[in-house]
Amino acid sequence: MTRICNFSAGPSALPEDVLHEIKDELLDYAHTGMSIMEVSHRSSIYRDVIDETEASLRRLIGIPSSYRVLFLQGGASLQFAAIPLNLMRGKRAAYVLSGLFSDKAQREASRYGTVEIVGSSEDTAFDRIPDLGQIDQRISADGGFDYLYICQNNTVYGTMFDVLPTCRNTPLVADVSSCFLSAPHEIERYGLIFAGAQKNAGPAGTTIVIVREDLIETGPACADICPSYMDYRLQAHKGSMFNTPNTFGIYACGKVFSWIERTGGLEAMERRNRAKADLLYRALDESALFHGTADPGSRSITNVTFRTESSELDEAFIEFARLRGIEGLKGHRAIGGLRASLYNAIDLASVNTLVACLHEFEASKRSSMRS
Ligand SMILES: *Cc1c(COP(=O)(O)O)cnc(C)c1O
After folding, report:
1. DSSP secondary structure, 257-293, as one string
2. 175 touches ligand 1 (CB under 6 Å)
3. Confidence (pTM)
4. Which one of 3, 69, 224, 239 has the fewest beta carbons within 10 angstroms of its own beta carbon?
5. Ligand 1 atom having least distance to the Cα of 78
């Protein structure tokens, strides 16, 4: 068996140790004679799984007891609606437009109230994070927003907020789908964060929401139309079991959380991730053929977007890499180009393999130009 180097943006590579553990337990979970997929979600066996998964996540991030952790379904995209339905009490929220997913989120929110764009990098094709000073000023001058929404790491454009907006008394809501558990999270700075699991936390199908309890304790802002499933207070009260949860997905997330704990926690993870990103960005900066597309001050440490001078050459590189066991390098269909996603399960050796492949391709182009 050979496993490829998988730089896919999501669903993405999972740690091999985790896959082995799941395989070993698949037919007989903890001497129950059943797969974890066949166990009732109401059983004490499953109760232990979800409780330990939450406890592991709380230890990893250091989540204060004043925050609730929810394991939901519907992907990150369902949260684009759940957030305004639960939190838009004054029917007015501030959004930062920094790419594809914040645009989808603001469109969804504008169905339930007024959305004001308080920062945007649309005029430079989302190659950077909008100016934070301006956002902070807007928020502190106007106390009337229900929350300030950001997409912290822009998976498609390869940019990230390295520093968070200040936003004083306005709760900060962040889509952290593609940077969840890639580095420590200062939870107290947020009112709510959420992440689809399929980037860094586990298989597709589970969405993790971490929300400050006081924001949800009076129930959804749009109580008349909010589906029961999306009612954060109800889900918190039911322990994410308003209905049958994604039992297998939550179990697999728990395996990933334990793997991060065993391998040094989030600080160690961030060090490894920064080393991986530095290695790749350095190779791009030194290349005469490839160049990074994000503004250097806004570069994501997770999703590295780059391109050559033409889409034909980009395609040729994707094929060249594929023949060498490297997959997932195609840029998002909305913008084309190339992208390598360096999620937690990707090790430095894989990034070295990619860098060697970039060099080899560039050298082959140079020699074919000479001949
Ligand atoms: C992948 C992604 C999404 C979409 O997630 P779904 O689970 O497919 O809804 C949203 N936001 C960000 C930042 C993402 O990376």
Report:
1. HHHHHHTTHHHHHHHHHHHHHHHHHHHHHH-SS-EE-
2. yes
3. 0.98
4. 224
5. 9
